Structure formats: structure tokens, C-alpha cells
Amino acid sequence: MPSSSRNGRGATPMAGRLPGLACALALACALALAAGPLPAAHAAATEIIGAGATFPAPALQAWAEQFSRESAASVRYEPVGSGEGIRSVTARSADFAVTDVPLTQAELAQDDLLQLPLIAGAVVPVVNLPGLGDGALQLSGPLLADIYLGRITRWDDPALRALNPGQQLPALPIIAVHRGDGSGTSFLFTYYLSGVSSAWLERLGIGSRLVWPVGVAAKGSEGMARRVHDTVGAIGYVEAAYAQHDELATVQLRNKAGNFVLASANGVRAALASARWSRPGYYEVPVNRDGAGSWPIVGVSFVLIHRRQDDHADALATLHFLRWTYAQGGGTAHRLGYVPLDDPELLERIESSWRQVRDDRGPTLPTGH
User: Fold this and answer.
1) Which of 119, 151, 252, 261 is least buried, going by the fewest C-beta atoms within 10 A?
2) Are the C-beta atoms of 339 and 148 separated by less than 8 Å?
């Protein structure tokens, strides 16, 4: 796999396995009993603030709304991008952050942060081409890289026509839309391009914020989705939930096995099947993985929280919310186009990790809580 440039935070993938549904449901039920809504005595007048990645924002905001209705605590999630979220939690202006760019063990230790995988989803190329609906266009990784390198500039380019013999590709210029802000989605997208295109790796590499050679910039996933939706001839990249919400045409992408696949929950799970969660900080980037149906660009969003907390009530409310997302947030995640992390072994490890969070009273979650 490619190594990372430091305008993003790099990664290296490998192996793991998916759970049996019955085991996952049993563990979820146990977690639900432990992570119900926060009692009013603990959470009166408590506001929990989260900030970070736009990739999982629809799920985080839906979870926040539901938890706030069921609990005395109020939760607010600000989708400001992975980089800004990391800065916010480091400065303690947010109770937790969410990032699509996993931090290394050294980076976590520097700011005394705990990092846990939260939710997974697919990064999908999306297009606005007259006459071509969802899934009609086929692309390979090298051709996608050539588009963003400015080597392929028109939709009727011979290389694109050769890959799409049954389609009438329009005689239009390609408008490549990229993120202009520090973006975990860009990190995942360029991580993929760096693995499938030596030209991309040598010229640009992996990054959450790049000096893009061509195209126009958009801010946030919502901005990217709007720009593609409103621009004929555009191509962009967003989390599948945004493509679903804005009814954008996604593409079939050739995966590592050589098959053209559409983004799907099963495709994301196939990629996660090789995840190795044993690394420090659960460091994992499941991009371009093996599997006949594996989707090539899968991202995991990670939650960051300080191990040492200043305020017991705020810390307790934050942990209750985060534990609640694992126990009761799966249905909402599925509905919005995400894939919950439901491996029972992984969930047990995450549950035990909360014991590392401490405040002036000792462990924020007492034994048996």
C-alpha cells in the first residue's frame, strides 16, 4: 500500500472477520441495557458538543437528535471536517471529535486521546451526465485518477468510451469537483487513487487537503453534493448517504478482483471482512480490499475523546451518548446508508475501552456501570 503524505494522516490495512448476526444482536441488547438514556440526575443542563467529519454527519446528527429526546442531556454535532474536529477536541472546545483520518498511536499519545471506530460507509464517485442514470457509467481506478490529474478532460474520451461500449457518452468537458477544506473523505479518496495509480502517488499522494491540479472546489460533503447536482458534466466524490439524499448518479467502479461493482452495504461489509482491529488505536483504512463484491473505497469514522476529563458530569454524559450510538444507533445508520460496526468481539473491546476515560473522581464509568 502507498505511504501517506503529511497533509493527511496515512494508513496501512489487513485482516479480520465479520460477526454472526445472533451474537451481534445479543451483545447489542446487553449494551442497550448498559447505555440507556442518561438519567436526569447526571445530565441536567448538560450540553454535549461533537465536531468533525462530514462523512458520517447525517448519522451523527440523527443520533444526537434521538438521544437528546430520550435523555436529559442535549447533544450537538458540528460537521466541520475531520481536521477541524481534531483541532476542536485537542483544544477542548468540543467534548468529542469524529475523524475519517485515523490518528497514529504517537499522535494519540501526544494529546492523550482515546480513538475508537464508530461507523463505516462507502465513498462513491458521483456524476451529472445527461442520459446516464445511477450505475450506468463504469470507471476504473486508473481512469478516475487520470480525470483528477487532468489527463482525461472530456466525457467522450476514447478511454472512457472503451470502458463503456454500450453507453452514449456526452461530448462534454469534465468538471472535476474536489473538496477545498481539510477533508477525511478526500483522505480516503486519495488513499485509493494512490494505490491504483503510480502517477497519482508520485505527483500528489495521500492527503486530506491537496493542491488539486484541475477542477473546482466545494466545501463539505453537502457542498460537494450540491455542486455536482447543479453542474452538468461534473464528477465528484461523497459518502453514499449524500448520493442517496441528493439522488446523484453513482458509478460502477472496478474493484481489486476486477469486477465492476456498485456501492452497497454488502460491498462495505466485504471490505471490512479483512479489517484488523488489533492495531493500536484501532488504526484501519479498509480501501481496495480483496473480495469479489468488495467496494473499493470504504471509510471508517473514528471517535476521539480525551482520556483525562476535566468535568465529571460532562464526561459521563458524553460516554453515555457514545455508548448509546453503538447499542441503539444501528437501525438509524442502516436507514441512512451507513454500515454499523457490529462485530461482537470488536464491540466488547470498545466497551472495555471506556474504562480508560478518567476524571477527578477516578474512572468516569464505575465498574459495573
Assistant:
1) 151
2) no
pLDDT in tens, 43-73: 445 899 999 999 999 999 999 999 999 988 9
Please tell me the number of Cα atoms within 13 Å of 60 on its side-chain side.
28
The whole-number pLDDT of residue 34 equals 45
Helix (H) or strand (E) holding 359: strand 358-359
Query: What nine digits make up the cell of 173?
Result: 468537458
Query: pTM, whole model, 2 decimals?
Result: 0.85
- Angstrom distance (rounded) from CA 200 to CA 198: 5
The helix/strand/coil state of 9 is: coil
Please check whether residue 283 is in contact with residue 102, taking contact to mean a CB–CB distance below 8 angstroms: yes
Q: Considering only CA atoms, give the Rg of the chain.
A: 21
- pLDDT tens-digit series, residues 137-192: 999 999 999 999 999 999 999 999 999 998 999 999 999 999 999 899 999 999 99
Q: Which residues contact 364 (CB under 8 A, 6 or more apart)?
A: 309, 312, 315, 316, 319, 354, 357, 358
